[in-house]
Amino acid sequence: MQDNSTTENEYSTETVDYSDLEIMCDKGSNRSFRAWFLPTIYTIICLLALVGNFLVILTYLYFKRLKTMTDVYLLNLAMADLLFAISLPFWAASFMSQWHLGVYPCKAMFTIYKVSFFSGMFLLTCISADRYFSITKAVSAHRCRSSAVFYGQVSSLVTWVMAVIFSVPDMVFSEININGTCIANGNNYEDYRIRMLISQMVLGFILPTVVMGFCYICIIKTLIQAKNFERNKAFKVIIAVVSVFVFSQLPYNVVMGVTTQETTDCNRDKSRLYALDVTRAVAFLRCCINPFLYAFIGVKFRNDLLKLLKDLGCISKSHLMYTHCGKRRSSVGLDTETTTTFSP
Prior knowledge:
By secondary structure, the chain is mainly α. The protein has one domain (4-331): Rhopdopsin 7-helix transmembrane proteins (Up-down Bundle), CATH 1.20.1070.10. It is 74% helix and 3% strand. It has twelve helices and four strands. The chain has a two-stranded antiparallel sheet. Helix 7 runs antiparallel to helix 8 (236-259) and helix 8 (236-259) packs antiparallel against helix 10 (286-297). The longest helix has 37 residues, at 190-226. It starts with 7 loop residues before the first helix and ends in a 13-residue tail after the last helix. The model is unreliable at 1-22 and 329-344 (pLDDT under 50).
């Protein structure tokens, strides 16, 4: 995910020492690239994320189907992604020109980004933990089934509170620098920038990924021993969501780690800035991919979405009946008590 503070100081034209000769490292090509590339990609991501996540939230609210803890988590995940998508037009505008909205909108933009980032990652961690207990501790999970939604709501609230707490530093230190740019570390906070990058990678990527990896390894082991993959196809959608998140976030986190190391090689510095912009754009795809994973993989969600679109007059009843007939054979045997709205 993005942290604008990782790039602004690096994009400035600064004096560095190359073989004891003071020369200028001109990063005008980097600024030109990001001025058209990031706004274009952000606009596409924003539109897809707004449509996809709005449909997820609307489907849940319309059918009132918060039956499981996973449903609660996925609804909150859609809310986090929608919140992030709303901030993207402001990021795009900030890359094209100076920041003209004042310091408080600047702080709000950074806060929204960090809250949505941490809440999204924490919620995916919660989803993997929920699936771990549901499959590997099935008896205990069955006993708690009646209160699962309540526990999901409480843990989701805790997740949002933690995300807000971890976002406080950016809210406090974000400001408009002397170049008229909204950044999170001002002009004199290089040590702060590095600390924030490392904490984001550890708290927002490494530790959650370790937890997810442990949970899903145990889940796969249990399913192999049970030899019952057919019945548990409902969990493939969650594995797909987490896998997409990891593969989209890993390149960006690696590049962020590289940017914490100082360099006096101008070409290398410019290359890593190109890499930072590209991998950031890939990382942002997460907020628009998740809803489409649910729509294309989850049979129950796809059926509910088609019913919603039919009720809204977007598709005809005959098209809905044709879709149901085409999918009925493939969905036989998958509608168990443990199947969620987003099940395949």
